[in-house]
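Possible regression after last week's pipeline update?

I re-ran a chain I had predicted before the update to compare outputs. Posting the input and the new output here so someone can diff against the archived version. Not blocking, just want to make sure nothing changed silently.
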Amino acid sequence: MQIKVNQEQCRGHALCFAAAPDIFVLDDEGYISVDGIVTTSEGRDEDVRRGVNSCPERVYTIVEQTSTGSRPRP
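New output (post-update):
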C-alpha cells in the first residue's frame, strides 16, 4: 500500500503515530518525518488505514494501485 504524505499540513497531533508507531515515524518535534509518496509494508493495510483515518488534518491520502500506475483515492 502507498500513502501520499503532505508534511506541510501536519500539526503534530501524533494520532497516526499512536495507531502505528513503526509506520508513521515522527521527527524530534513530533511532526511526521516524511513527505511525498511512501510505500508501507505488506500485510499492514489495517494499521495504515487506522493511522490515516486518525489524522484530524488529513495529512495522508491512500494511493490506489491500478494496472496503469497509481492514483489518489478520493
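Follow-up from reviewer: compared with the archived run. The chain has a mean pLDDT of 89. Marking as no regression found.
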